[in-house]
Amino acid sequence: MSGGFAFPKPEFDIESTVERAMALINRTLQPSLEEAQQVVDKVRAGRPLVAPGDLVGQVTRGNRIRAARAVSYSLPSILPGYGTAISAAALPVALREVLRESVSAAIKVGLLYDRDLTDPELTRIAVLLVLTDGAVTLDKTGRIRPDAILGPHASLLGRTAAYDAVAALTAEERQEIAASQSEMLRAWALAVGPPLLAGLLPFGLGPMAAANYMQHVLKGTITAAARVFGPATPAPVTVDELPEREVQPDRAPS
Description:
The protein has twelve helices and no strands. The protein starts with 13 loop residues before the first helix and ends in a 25-residue tail after the last helix. α1 (14-25) crosses α11. The protein has one domain (14-229). The chain is an all-alpha fold.
């Protein structure tokens, strides 16, 4: 009798993984504005005099932590063979969780910058631009081509205050962007998915690498969101709002 028992070696096809993920992540673009607003209000209440741009890290901290935890779906890979196969099957779910946190973080940044996100279509397009902007930044292969995805609207990517530009578009132009949703989400999944495969490395090395990468993904998303929704419009300050020590009566000349 020759040799011992050998674990099967699972093969991974990122294209099929992304296809399975798309069925899940297409339903993840409807975050709760109420919950996001509560987080933003709580952070603002604690530091009312701090500029919105300096509060982005605090507002999105929970999203970054939860995105890193999404790699828990890779934990079975600690056991080579079957454990790796189980983790591979869970990759679409991990992608969905990272997308959920990315969308939530983008929404919080928009609210922090005092954007009106009550228009579902406008908000959805803005979030898709954030995700696509992040995907283009992450992509190192050149496979993601903004012109092929968005056509003439590709100029919105990387543009400061792109939210204002989208709000100024006609209904027909917005529909042109909305029609590219599947391609935009696919670009995001293809940019985030392959490095997530590092989570399948055995003996605990993979989940650690994947968790670090998820932090990197969220930071890029948050940076893109700040660019799309910002800069914040400074609120006018009246004399009544100034602290008493800063308001001094005019002195009569001596």
